[in-house]
Specification:
35% helix, Rossmann fold, 509 residues, alpha/beta, 6-stranded mixed β-sheet
Amino acid sequence: MIGKSLIQMIGITKSFPGVVANDNVDFDLRAGEIHSILGENGAGKTTLMNILSGMHQPDTGTIIVRDKTVQIRWPKDSLRLGIGMVYQHFTLIPNLTVMENLILGFEGGFFLNLKKAEQKLQQISTAYGLSIDPQRKIQDLSVSERQRTEILKIFFHDSDVLILDEPTSMLSPAETKGLFRTMKLLQKVGKSVVLITHNLNEALSLSDRITVMRSGTKVAELTSDTLLNMEKKAASDKILDLMFGASPRSRATDVEKVLDDEQVLELKEVEALNNRGFIGLKGISFSVRKGEIIGITSVESESQRLLAEVIGGQKRITSGQLLYRGQDITHMNIAKRFELGISYITDDRINEGCVLDMKLWENSILQSYYRSPFSRFGILNHLNTQSFTSDLIGRFGIRTTGPEAQVSTLSGGNIQKLILARGLSVKPRLIVCNRPTYGLDARTVQYIQELLKKESQRGTAVLLITSDIDELFSCCDIIGVLLGGAIAGFMQRSDATPEKVGKLMLGIR
């Protein structure tokens, strides 16, 4: 049952150099409710919650927790008030165990009574459906298990409020359902959840209230009662109108193209080990032709990522062969593959996709800085790099002050746009992209999907690895499913249905 107001944020304003992230924003959270915050990339959603979690301090405004005005200067202040946030990019220490990560924030550190700590972990795990081995190292966990650990860490601190920033963007459909079950369990015992998301269906199905933000301002607050009285499509259209000013209702359209018989990419009996040293890919064989978009999905996000990394060059295979336009690239490094025309777009935008402390123009030419027109005789042409970056900013709608801005000042979604813009700007012959639209708003998702289809029309081969079923059917010529690290099957899009794909994902023939 939803209780009285637990947290109030009144008149919150926060500016960064050249950008007003939050402009006089009000937000409140009640005990026992799930409250979603929706908005396009750069709308100020995460900044507002970063202020509540102690990562940023507001320029002006008031925060009231349990009827007392408070100042939250650090994340520790927030945790003491019973507020915890799980970020898109996790803050766990990879070479420590789950239990070691959980107790790091407590006074006394490792000198705590570990037996009591493990008993407490067991109680929390059972209550919220978050079971995990406390002795496993973080570096050996899957994405969903790391997220589970982050949530456990918050409730290990006896928090009442959980803030989730785009929590499903890196999860498979099955993992997403598990997270939703946990959120409902938390609500049942009186915990409050703030869900920052771009996914309208998630917000509509889970939320008691939805706050909609646009360009740093709060434009609406919708209650579940209001939304229940509307048809689902009408509710979605209303929210999209609030988010963008005009709803991007048109879906990505098919483009006319004639598929070529030339095989651009071919995998022959490829096997590879995952991060835990077990076989993560088993006997993978398929090919991608010129002008073709092949989509790959699975229940396990780990196998999807491993497949992308093997083709991109991040991970070595233990057996099998990789061919690119007939050439063996099995043992070729990332730079060589890029030189041949392979553009790999990683899903790890923070650790692999860019350098946060460098400027936009520097990041936009990371792989091409030594090439014309960016460089001649080893000397960078600053005018050309600035012009190139400005063009990417304009075409992809990257919200920033300009090419000289540091990437660290961008929102997560805008960093993703930058990585996509860079990867698609070099006119590759093969694009390998893993979850290219995760964390992006509806308008940008549509733009990226149209762009991939136009690339394929131009003759580019595209391997699209995604957990988004709608994206598979919107973009792909052929849909493939991974199950247990092996190919469960391929089907032409014209013969496929979401039900057929779902059955393959679950191992049902």
